[in-house]
Amino acid sequence: GAGVSQSPRYKVAKRGQDVALRCDPISGHVSLFWYQQALGQGPEFLTYFQNEAQLDKSGLPSDRFFAERPEGSVSTLKIQRTQQEDSAVYLCASSLGGASGTQYFGPGTRLTVL
Amino acid sequence: AQSVTQLGSHVSVSEGALVLLRCNYSSSVPPYLFWYVQYPNQGLQLLLKYTSAATLVKGINGFEAEFKKSETSFHLTKPSAHMSDAAEYFCAVSASNAGNMLTFGGGTRLMVKP
Q: Residue A43: closest CA among chain B residues belongs to which residue?
């Protein structure tokens, strides 16, 4: 079956521009996660949804970052007024739920801010 | 709070040799532990996970890991390395008292020499 998909795969933005990154989770997965992976590092948690409810956004680095999942399926991560330090790969993952549940990752969106 | 330490950011082995990638964790409650593999420009793929059943966990591609509570370790091994095993490997932990997010180590890049 289809896995987690993300679009675009690559995004180049000028500093100060707004960007929107999309995630399509596996059908039926109630949990959705966003992670940020800087070059040469492990992924770091940004935010977590259970269905349409955003249960944890403690990892969002600033109020320029905003995520939504209005119908409990597709999610969008928006970054306003991008800065160079936002350059990273943004990974989306989905799971059936629970701390022991396997998270299935998408291929990521590589964001480069010039 | 939970954390993961992966000793050795780069590991090099010869084809056919034993692979040993080290992971130590910190968690205030019984953890769930995961190993993921990441190939270039791809998302993370689950190799195996520990969820409080058997302490020796077998995964895909001949990998296995042993949960040792006394050593707070979850090292990944494979008896005989193959060229196709060259990739980045991430150890991760989640815990029932910390939401369902994964906390990742910094990763270990495995290089396999012919």
A: B104
